Amino acid sequence: MQGPVMRRVVIDTNVLVSALLNPDGTPARVLSLFLNGKVEACYDSRILHEYKEVLARPKFPFEQVDIDALVNTFERDGFVIAPEHTDHTFSDDADRKFYEVATTAEAVLITGNKKHFPSEARVLSPLEFLSG
Questions:
Q1: N or C: which end of the chain has fewer CB within 10 A?
Q2: Does 54 fall in a domain?
Q3: How far apart are CA 36 and CA 20, in angstroms?
């Protein structure tokens, strides 16, 4: 007998940064669900590249070894997606990759910037996701 299907999510970089900066906040609870195997995080190479690039910025206090360990966890425990292109227009085209992976994977996109994405049921704030 097969177990329940694990809920798929795509974690926007701003949620990841917030989770690491404030381990007691709502975004940290979202990250914890992935790290504890409660949700399946979906990604593609563009997302991992952005995670690495943003987390390594000098304004953040993260050590490279910790960034590498986190990204390796996404690679090991997450689900890589070959996304389908979308024709949606984005105010910041860098957001496109998260939306494309989420729609292709039929996953929930968790972001702190909902206004950057199409207004759809799959696009949720961390609090909306945890409340759902």
A1: N
A2: yes
A3: 16
What span, in angstroms and rounded, lies between the C-alpha atoms of 131 and 76?
A: 27
The CATH number covering residue 49 comes to 3.40.50.1010
Nearest to 73 by CA among 37, 124, 103: 37
Please check whether residue 49 is in contact with residue 84, taking contact to mean a CB–CB distance below 8 angstroms. no
> Cβ of 121: how many Cβ atoms within 10 Å?
8
Residue at 1 is within a domain: no
Residues 6 or more apart in contact with residue 114 via CB below 8 angstroms: 123, 124, 125
Q: What is the per-residue pLDDT across 78-100, written as a single tens digit (0 to 9) for each?
A: 999 999 999 988 989 999 999 99
Work out the pLDDT band at 47, boundaries 50, 70, 90.
very high
Query: Domain range spanning residue 35?
Result: 7-131
